[in-house]
Amino acid sequence: MAKVGDTESLTWRVTPDLLAVVDEGGIFLDVNPAWMQTLGRRPDELKSRPFLEFLHPDDVAATEDAYLKLQHGVPILKFENRYRHKDGSYRWLDWNAVPEGDLILCSARDITEAKKTALDLAYSSQEAQFRDQFIAVLGHDMRNPMAAIATSLRIALEEEQTERARKFLEMARESAARMSELIDNVTDFARARLGGNIGVEPQDGIALEPVVKSVVQEHRLTAPDALIAELYDCPTPVRCDPDRVRQIVSNLVANAVHHGESGHPIGVRASEENGRFVLSVVNSGPPIPKRTQEVLFQPFVRAEFRSSQNGLGLGLYIAKQIAEAHDGTLTFTSSEEETEFRFEMPL
Question: Torsion angle, CA of 171/175/180/182, rounded to 10 degrees?
């Protein structure tokens, strides 16, 4: 720190920090050129004037307390207040000050942008938390009405209906099932984002071949034009949550059906490799774009190479969360020839 007789030093003249010498009455005796750069005030506009004159009104009391400590010989470190710029705006300054005889030697650094960044991050965090909580409540509150709709449609389909009425009821049931899936995805997403886990209930001795087969059969019914080739070699029972594994399989097969090239078969293989259950789902078609690959497992990401997009873009994010909850992995490779998703977990 430069003293009064040292105000022509190179450091005093070129440092971006605001340097000042203040007397015991709080009057600026000297300031360096950095004050002009930061506050738009020339040194001669500050000299012989009290520093309190430039403070934000809300910071006066705290600054007076800090200055009183300096007058009693106590250094002040990392003290923040706001100084008025010549244009009327305020800049946040971070101060260090030490008493030197009857003088106070001060240095300050402009932290306005850092303060703004921290405030923006705090607001963003609050907004994200509010959004996630809102999604969680919305998903929960929609679940019961949708369950009632699905039950009503099931009962109606069990009764005698005209062919036309049955057709519309089937369409409504499919839509309700799709909506229930979306609600489940939203609820899972909110649970994961709010710091909870995805919610798995492992059971011992689960045979996964029937689980995978049933999912494939469901997709054959909903997409009769899809060609799906199956191969199974997974006889060892696994400790897992079968409903959650079904969710992974359904998501991967649905993606393959939706993005696969028409007329080319989709390959579904469930096997065992090196003490792990492995599910591979392969489809032909255009590769996943590079920029999408980088964020594919993030929420609300959907492929860009199809004009028709269904869902919220949560499926792969949730599938990966489920895989990791089983101490497993969900990975993919994508080339000009084919795209493969691969789910693995311990046997």
Answer: 150
The CATH number for 180's domain is 1.10.287.130
Sorted by sequence, the CB contacts under 8 Å of residue 168 that are 6+ apart come out as none
Residues 188 and 124 in one domain: yes
Helix axes 112-158, 163-193, angle to 10 degrees: 150
Distances in Å between the Cα of 183 and the Cα atoms of 16, 51, 141, 196, 262 are: 55, 60, 10, 17, 29
Q: Which of 72, 87, 110 lies at the terminal end of a domain, its last residue?
A: 110
Residues 58 and 95 grouped into a single domain: yes
Query: Under 8 Å CB-to-CB from 273, ≥6 apart: which residues?
Result: 344
DSSP assignment of 211-223, as one string? HHHHHHHHHHHH-
Within-domain flag for 342 = yes
Structure tokens at 168: 């519309």
**Is 5's pLDDT higher than 50?**
no
Long-range pairs, 182-187, Cβ under 8 A, ≥24 = 182/311, 182/312, 183/139, 183/142, 183/143, 183/146, 184/139, 185/311, 185/312, 185/314, 185/315, 185/318, 186/135, 186/138, 186/139, 186/312, 186/314, 187/136, 187/139, 187/140, 187/143
Q: Is 330 helix (H, G, I), strand (E, B) or coil?
A: strand
Separation CA 315–CA 342 (nearest Å): 15
> Would residue 172 count as lying in a domain?
yes
C-alpha separations of 173 from 148, 180, 189, 193, 244 in Å? 12, 10, 24, 30, 22
Q: How far is CA 324 from CA 197, 200, 292, 306, in A?
A: 10, 10, 21, 28
Q: What DSSP state is assigned to residue 244? A: H
Asked if the structure places residue 198 within a domain, the reply is no
The bridge status of strand 28-31 relative to strand 203-206 is unpaired
Give CA–CA dist 342/281, Å, rounded: 7
Q: What is the pLDDT of residues 135-182, one digit of tens each?
A: 666 666 676 777 788 888 888 888 898 989 888 888 888 778 777 777
- My answer on whether 156 and 277 are in the same domain is no
Please report, as a single letter, which amino acid is at residue 83. Y
Domain that holds residue 328: 203-346
Percentage of residues in the chain having pLDDT higher than 90: 52
Rounded Cα distance between 278 and 269, Å, is 8
